[in-house]
User: Fold these one by one.
Assistant:
Number 1:
Amino acid sequence: MKQKLIGVVSLILIVAGCAAPPKKPEGIAFFPPAPELPRIQYLTYLTSEKDLGESQSTFDRFVVGKRKDMRLDKPYGTAFYKNKLYVCDTNRTVMVFDFEKKTMTQLPGAQGPGKLLQPLNITVDSEGNKYVTDPVRGQVVIFDKTDSYVNAVGLPGAWKPTGVAVYGDRLYVTDMKNALVKVFDKKTGASLKEFGRQGPATEMLAFPTNLAFDSEGYLYVSDAGRFQVVKFDRDGHFMAAIGKIGANPAHFARPRGLTFDRANRMYVVDAALNNVQVFNNKAQLLLYFGGGGTKPGDLYLPAQVAVDHDNIEFFRKYAAPDFEIEFLLAVTSQFEKKLVNIYGVGKQKGKTYPSDEVLQKDLREKLEKMMKEQTPEKMEDVQKVN
């Protein structure tokens, strides 16, 4: 009996020794790079459940076996809610990273009447309701705070919903098929209005993909056909167009996801330039981060960006010792190994940072110099991508 007990204990110790080692740091990547003062640090990436750390106990693995590792395939939209990150895997369903439980699961309500065919974008309202656009299903599918299916909005076949945002009691959705923004009653799903094809051609949408509201209640729509971000008021009146086609910073080649932080800075993903550009509340470029490749901080066909203030502690271990994180950014890449890239926005301890106004002025001077050195080949490359 004693020998059997020793054997069981030994076996458990062997199993424990076979546990997956903790994820190794990739290396430090700051934006802007030295000698500039860092404002954004690349922290880590999430592609599978194991990237969250070990959640299954040694004894549990010994008794029931090792749980199959869940992985993302081709993510697009993403949104934080409390201690979870929701990711639209366009080849599967909505995947849920739980930072508290260190698990990755499929959205429970996305089956039966809530089944998703190609989830593209997701937003979460203040009550915890999730709104998922599915252009193949042709609807916005709604799930409640427990992730259970509630309802679906829109007539399949009549439109192609892509981006989604909530403001008050209204649901705003980009319709790529008809080049419109459609507005619905959030609770009943009733169609209220649509806009984007009225007025002069300079105010019309061409190929709207994503949208987001700023802190003042203005709606911003990324338009891949215009190579711009277009600003509207909540009733659909055209306000301004930001950017133009080009490969330089403050230009767009293939604008996709966008969001705003609490300081009303706008973050715009560009899938062709493989970066995220950051603008102040006057639509002036402050900085940009990312870049095509596989180095720490690089992106590969990025799609969407989300802001989070609730899960800093989970990712703080990846930050440089002298870098203070103020909030997080999650940026999805559709290909390669690093599919959800996590960045920390903050400041280096003990350093005095210039204001956004000074930062924008310095960057503008650098961009003017860059523009003078611009070659025609770069513009041709951008046009080929599109």
Number 2:
Amino acid sequence: MLKIKDNVDLKELEKFGFKKCSNSGEYVLHFAHYVDGKIYSYIVITKTRRITCLDYVAIEHHQQAVEVLFDLIQAGLVKKVEE
């Protein structure tokens, strides 16, 4: 599982397009959000810094999701952890 490193200020995620949800404290990056079409393509970074909800990324948004994750890794913000 991927996790944002503990020493990273989560505000750094905003540089990659993530927005903080005021009520949950999670950071979310939406690729598409269709209510009627039932496509909810997004990446969530939880309050515990785990990167999750990749299973909701629609096929047409996989490339974007991979690129964002790659950018986070290249920036040194991500580490791999055991579940």
Number 3:
Amino acid sequence: MAADCSVIKAQLDEANRAYNEISNGAQVVVIVDAFRSRVEYGRANIPELKAKIALLQAQYVACLAGKPHAVMTRPVQFFF
């Protein structure tokens, strides 16, 4: 496993941990991403967290396969 694959795997594990904590009743879970950005997820953000997990899973699979990991699973959406 390449070094960047292990980073993606760590992010995926952290996102899955956050999802499990929120599903089990935690109010807010904080994730610090690879760019040292602090992101808070709560019950209202579950769809966003699921989308992040799906993207990280696709990036991890692509990384393990040796392909570029710029995988887009759907168009980008902006919420204001």
Number 4:
Amino acid sequence: MGVRLTLVAALAALAAAPSAVAGGWLPASADAEWVYEFNNTAYSAVPVKEKVTVRSATGRSFILNWTTEGQGNPENAHSSVGTVSFQDTASGLINTDWASSVPPPDFPILCARAGNCGNSLASSFYLLIWGNRAPLLVEPLLRGSSWASTGGVEGDVTSLSTYVGRERVQVPAFPSPVLAAKVRTEVTQAGALGDPFGSGVRTVWWVYGVGPVKIVLEHAGGADAPTSTSTLQSTNRIAQAPPPDANYFPLRKGLKTRYAWRNTKHLKQRSVQEFNVDETANNSARVSVKHVSGPIRVAGTYGFALRTDGLTNIWGATQAASLAKFPALGPRALAPDKRRRFFTPYDLMTYGSNPVLPAYPKARESWTVKRPSRDFSIFGARGKTTVLGLRTVRVPAGRFRALAVQSTFTQAGFPFGSGTRTSYFAANRGLVKLVFRHRDGSVSTVELLR
């Protein structure tokens, strides 16, 4: 995060008409207003009120202004004006730019050199974006979400953020506590003159439909290390119920699952396979599969990405030696050696169309295979997928309250690639059961062993 020292005169043109609305965690409609009170226990003479408004918005990008002018602040309060720019993307909220007047002279210097330092922690939105600009807030925001990011004008500030969960928080802007998503971030700056001040632990409480309502940054240092805070004093935004945060397919590094699958005609001896989440970054993951027992000796990897448009299988590559003989799959438009095969539970789960799951699944939500599309080119299957809702299922790994998702596919000329698949996903576990009733009369069943 940096400070553009030439901004003060440019802020005379703050009234451009916004034309777009951002996502629910920071809604930037044209009339949106927020007033925050910023304070630092060591370097602020008094708490300072800052008014934040929307300068402009186009598509998914928007710019916010802030100013301390006209907010009834005491004479000894420091003054500040600035802008901060965002983009609301499929992977979350990203900070794209910033500019402001210089920070108060008593604040620590957050650069390796004292002259022309482009970093500041002297206002509410600088507290917010310090060290984690891309993404600032990951989406979908689900249980277990964590992400790494960087910041600072020289890119020397690193952070690791974790979604802690939800709790009610009381701030002056609302008469009673509001439900907030709590995000904890460990921030580290190295090499700056004031790098203890640039390091610490920040907690942000986000309210859906409003934005951040409280920010606390506990700076590193000795026993008397300072704390910076910002609390929402007033707003014309209305707190809304946040979307569900259940994670039905956790992409957590090191997560292992073991499955057995059979087919009533073509795989009567079960194939046992183990999956491991090898690497994760920005809500994307590489998952490997290996043979444990049974007639299919397989090894391979899959790529998944979780975004606001759902969980997408972006690639898959397997090698297998199978004693089981499966019927051919289409589409005819692809050469036989380019067609997908059913060797693993994930082959069955990802077949036909994306997303595998919506980001925030709701009962009766549905989607169809588009033509033309990437999925139709690969699978050549027409079909529709519907979220059925929660169901209770029993598998060797236990009893689960699982989200049922049903797909019906027709792959022209290939009955084994046609039929009805029902997948069951348990929160914090992922796939626990799958039943594919193929139109050749056979049934494939997958169950979680552990």
